[in-house]
Amino acid sequence: MTGWGAAERGAAKHKVLVAPAKADYGVRPIHYNELPIMTEHQSKDPLHGVTLEQLLNKLVESYGWSGLAERIRINCFSSDPSIKSSLKFLRRTPWARKQVEDLYIDMIEKAASDNPWLRGGK
Predict the structure, then answer these.
(1) What distance lies between CA 32 and its chain's CA centroid?
(2) Cα separation values, 74 from 11, 24, 40, 54, 93, Å
(3) Handedness of CA 101, 107, 108, 109 (dihedral sign)
(4) Which of 7, 40, 63, 83 is most open to solvent, judged by the fewest CB atoms within 10 Å of its CB?
(5) CA-CA distance, 29 to 49, in Å (whole number)?
(6) How far is CA 7 from the centre of its chain?
(7) What are the pLDDT digits (tens) for 34-90?
């Protein structure tokens, strides 16, 4: 005889539905301190998230093929250079890829040191 109150006992003409005092519906409120904190991971590696093709395109944009050939002595930069042939060579030759990555890091660091916003306004 729970749930209907006095209407079940015949005391009133209208039935009134009364919910139990502590109903457990399987849902509880979420408090703000229980929510996961979304922090963006900042990698200290300047090559993180940069593909070899993006890296090579930026170097070619910055130095040009002749500039790359002067800085790194690789035939794919000096004789009939193309992104496709250079990528193929760099993917198969770890020492050459390392030199290209080092040049890219130097270019990024130089750009950061030249930018007053990135160096703290000095």
Answers:
(1) 25
(2) 99, 72, 38, 19, 11
(3) positive
(4) 40
(5) 38
(6) 62
(7) 555 656 667 788 888 999 999 999 999 999 999 999 999 999 999 999 999 999 999
Rg (Cα) of the chain, in Å, rounded? 34
- Cβ burial, residue 63 (10 Å; 0-12/13-18/19+): middle
Q: What are 102's two structure tokens?
A: 């080092």
> The tokens of 78 are what?
């000096």
Residues in the chain: 122
Tokens of 70: 């002067």
The model's pTM: 0.61
Q: Which residues contact 6 (CB under 8 A, 6 or more apart)?
A: 12, 16
